[in-house]
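quick one, 124 residues, struct below
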Amino acid sequence: ILKGMLVGALGSFAALFLLNSLVNRSGLAGDFRVIPLALLFLLLLSLAAAPAQNALSRVFERQADGAALALTNDPAVFISLKQNIAGTNLATVRPHPYIKYALYTHPPVMERIEHARDFQRSNS
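---
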């Protein structure tokens, strides 16, 4: 959570710095008309940054899964939990790679299960 907050704060700072630079260069500083343009700029920037933010979130989630497996040393329970959650939520267990790249903040269920199986094989 701390890493995500730090990355978010740095991204927000960079976006606002860029917006400030653009507003000052355009001569709209202090003008009321800049508000809708600033909102549009921030919306487009957040849409463009979403795939990278999601990829980073998936990395953090994989690390969390690895830590959970190392702490519990019970991949069978981890796998069972992921299968139950996927069934209850009607999750897409193997989404199209483009959908995963653009929208998924967590690794898909099958990737998490495969990771747990790899952990189980390496620790058997």
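The two ends are 31 Å apart (CA to CA).
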